[in-house]
Amino acid sequence: MTNLARIVSSFSFVTRAVLLGVLVLGLAAPSLAKPKCFPREGRCVQVTVNGQAAVKMTKKERRQLERFETSPYADDATVWIREPVSGELEVLAQQVTGSDAWFGAGVSSDIGVVPLEQVDLDVSRRESSASSVRAGGQALRTERLELNSNVLPAGLYLLRVTLRGSDNWDRATVFLRVE
């Protein structure tokens, strides 16, 4: 009998059960741990707009968004672009280092624009149908507004940047000002 076995055998049954539980939980902990991406608050998405990286919002910026609480996405904003942007928007969305296992293969992005003020956006309506979703035997038709240009009128906006992979997704909501 090894020294460790002698020491463990001298413990009471309850003590051995507790030690076994700690050992099992300790070995299983990495597989049970939630990835930092799990709440889907944009923690695994890095967004850059016109060369400026989105940074975490402070209380001051959060207060600026309070007046837009009627927007369904204002509460989701956790990052912002510090300096106003102008001209053609160039948005780059990437997954953060260490999030490969979360997203899986084939990561793609989708960017939604949510104006927080009354602006005239140059958009076109696009209709499509989803054959995988049916109602009354018919494929559902959807309508989507798509920007005709990547130049936005002056105002305050939220960008809803979603990264999707074969295994999972995450979304960052970015607050920015366009001049």
Characterization of the model:
With 179 residues, the chain is of the alpha+beta class. It has two domains: 3-32, no CATH class; 45-178, no CATH class. The chain is built from four helices and ten strands. The strands form three sheets. It has a five-stranded mixed sheet with strand order 3-4-10-9-6, with no helix packed on it. Strand 7 and strand 8 form a beta hairpin. The relative contact order is 0.22.
Fill in the keyword field for this structure:
single chain, 179 residues, alpha+beta, 2 domains, five-stranded mixed β-sheet, three-stranded antiparallel β-sheet, 4 helices, 10 strands, globular
Number of helices: 4
> By helix and strand content, what is the structural category?
alpha+beta
**How far is the first residue's CA from the last residue's CA?**
77 Å
Strand neighbour order, sheet with most strands: 3-4-10-9-6
The percent of residues in helical segments reads 10-25%
Give the biggest sheet: 5 strands, mixed
Brief characterization of the structure:
Helices cover 22% and strands 37% of the residues. By secondary structure, it is an alpha+beta fold.
Q: What's the helix and strand layout?
A:
Elements: H1 3-9, H2 13-32, E1 45-49, E2 52-53, E3 55-56, H3 59-66, E4 79-80, E5 91-95, H4 100-103, E6 108-115, E7 123-135, E8 138-147, E9 155-164, E10 169-178
Parallel strand pairs: 4-10
Antiparallel strand pairs: 1-2, 1-5, 3-4, 6-9, 7-8, 9-10
